[in-house]
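Below is how a single chain appears once it has passed through the pipeline. First comes the sequence as given, then the structure the pipeline wrote out for it. We keep one example in the README because the format questions we get most often are answered faster by looking than by reading.
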Amino acid sequence: MKNQLMNMLEMRKNEMIQIRRYLHENPELSFKEEKTAQYIIDFYKGKDVDIQTNVGNGLGIIVTIEGGKPGKTIGLRADFDALPILEETEVPFRSKNEGVMHACGHDGHTAYLLVLADCLIQLKSSLSGTIKIIHQHAEEVPPGGAKSIVESGVLDDLDAVFGTHLFPSHPAGEVGYRSGYSMAGRTYFKLGIKGVGGHGSSPHLANDAIVAGSHFVTAVQTVISRRLNPFDMGVVTIGSFDGKGSFNVIKDRIEIEGDVRYMTEETQQLINNEIHRIVKGIETEFDVQCELLYMPDYPPLYNDPKMTEFVKNSLQNMNDPDIKQVLEFPMFSGSEDFSYYAEKTPGCFFYIGCKPKGVEKVYFNHHPKFDIDEDALLIAAKSVAQVVCSFYELD
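Resulting structure:
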């Protein structure tokens, strides 16, 4: 079956590319992917599978492929939302939806998984188990789609879960893995500070919210430099400081928004505690009122060590000319809501190189000029197919 599956994928490489290009031309934002979801549903119409739609808090789709014999159940996940980015590439299939772009490779994820799923459906009589194809909405915007899909219970029977991501940091043909904590968790926070407004000529009659906010911006960086173990990873970013007003008026209220990254839940809790402590101190020191919204979005992504070792060994033993190297990737400080699947079920999220050919300066994911080597679609499909065949011990 394995050779047959690989041959089928090779014969349908152009189809993967065409699907990817269609999706790239027609991107939709998180929680608004109605046409994309319908395109996916239509792809499975008439096929011998069970389709569940509107799963979770949006437009999630679960396609269940039941094998010819009973056995374990695995999940294969791809996301399908786009980003609010104005595309700057010169490809002929650039976005038709101005201001929205598939700048993270989700179009490619969906394209390869659709074709792989169809091939598995055709060969399902040889399977001893069940495969659940997880077409996930809203990966880019918290609370995301993964958490709600997990909470729906439709994946409670999974024995393992796998996912991939296209990254242009490596060329097509290189596949990466990382055991243990692999991608960062993320928290959003918003701090409102209320003081007393006044005139610049009479600061003693006012209570400057900007001064208090500026102190917070400086103090919060000491959480990383003086509270966090130097061997641990943590980042606090102030992305917005809204204190605009007249040049000679003391502001009575400002608002600060920021982003926290961490690689373990222990680090997340430490940063959480320290930021709350700093806010309480600012209230006392500056006699202001503070309102802090602190919302952990996605937990750190933890790849099960045994499952990751299995994936690594499977890919290294693949003996396929398209997969040129299987190597350990570094940790990524970006976040991924695949972490919710991996929290509940042993899993592995691995990486597919897609650096465009002939390009020296690579535009990374979320850049307006992000692009991929479309050869990576077949490599992604083959890599996941290899993992499936190894899991079910299919020759």
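The two ends are 6 Å apart (CA to CA).

See the next section for the split statistics.
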